Amino acid sequence: MYGTLLVAAGAIGLSAAGAAESWWHERNLRRIPIRIHVNGTRGKSSVTRLIAAGLRAGGIRTCAKTTGTVPRMIFPDGSEAPVFRASRANIMEQRRIVHAAAQLGADALVIECMALQPRLQSLCELKLVQSTHGVITNARADHLDVMGPDVDGVARALSGTVPVKGIVYEAEQRDGPRSVIAAAARDRGSKLVSIHDDAVADISWEELGRFSHIEHPDNVAISLRICADLGVDRETALRGMWAAVADPGVMRMFHVAEANQDITFVNAFAANDPESTGHSWNTLVARYESVERRIALFNCRQDRADRSLQLADACVRWRPADHYVLSGTGTEIFARRAMQKGISPDRLTRAESEPAAKLIDVLRHQSGRSSMVMGMGNIAGPGMDLLDYFQQTQLVQDAPANRSADQNDLVLHGAV
């Protein structure tokens, strides 16, 4: 039923009766008392899902829409459907999301900003969402060609979604971008709520460990604060978040135990800027302090030399790895820069153009009795093959002991 409603809502768009469309849109907005507009460089989709799950658990009838890896509409019962697009993405699809949420009787709509151009980000807020609560997860050096030229420029662009006379929550920890967001909040007459390090530190490893995927404490902290301000207590909100479906692009971990060796593999290939990648690495090193070895796997591409240089420059400032493995093509570019920056050659292995099977041998050789391996850089080529290996191997190991050999073979090949 929900999917049919969403597709039917897709027929609504701009037409000659623009004034009537605007009137109906304003009417739909007024029918949804809580409207939460989520923006930021990283974590938008995750935070959108976390907030919606927490509010649902608290008994607030909530719809949500993400724009991440796969655009999705999430309904009040937690089910979801892909957002239909007749052609390429257009910010006007936010109108039909609002229409669908109003038709479903939603008390809250949590919607991820889908615009990149600064002018369109502001348009999304002022005309299409008109949020009561805004969220800016962070402002990092990404898409500088559009939102730059620097991080403060990114913060200014993201601040286009600060609500008018509402509340804006931000979890950016640096003074420069935070002051930009604060100025935007003052300009639009909104209250600013900053999520500081102490709120992030309050999220325990035990709580993070109950997610089915790797979730950043920053994302959880800002989501919990919004839920609390809307009347949902911490424990209730967390239970909802733990039970919710994760975004398809979220970081996931896979555990493989073979031949007296435990390897936890973390898929972080989607974090494609050095700052976000470093943040993820440092978080995981702290989380996996008890393992014997922590291995940083950088999957390189010859045609992405700039990214290799950026990551090589950045990784020496992160918490150190016990070993660095370079896969893909153009690994010499990364290796030469990393050694110039102080990484010892005996802690670095180049596996130039090697297939996934060879990479697995390299990782096993470096892993000792237990290890955490984080894959980053690019997913193309051996990155995807490596991810497939860990996914399928874990599926087989997690299969019930009473499966027949034929059933295990079906699991291995993705048929079950």
From TrEMBL:
GO CC, alphabetical: membrane
Keyword Signal: yes
Listed SUPFAM superfamilies: MurD-like peptide ligases, catalytic domain
GO function terms (MF aspect): acid-amino acid ligase activity; ATP binding
Pfam families, per database record: Mur_ligase_M
An example Gene Ontology biological process: capsule polysaccharide biosynthetic process
Residue ranges constituting the Mur ligase central domain according to the UniProt record: 38-147
Range of residues in the leader sequence: 1-19
Keywords: Signal
Family matches, as InterPro entries: Capsule_biosynth_CapB, Mur-like_cat_sf, Mur_ligase_cen, MurCDEF_pg_biosynth
NCBIfam families membership: poly_gGlu_PgsB
Name of this chain's protein: Capsule biosynthesis protein CapB
Source organism phylogeny: Bacteria, Pseudomonadati, Planctomycetota, Planctomycetia, Pirellulales
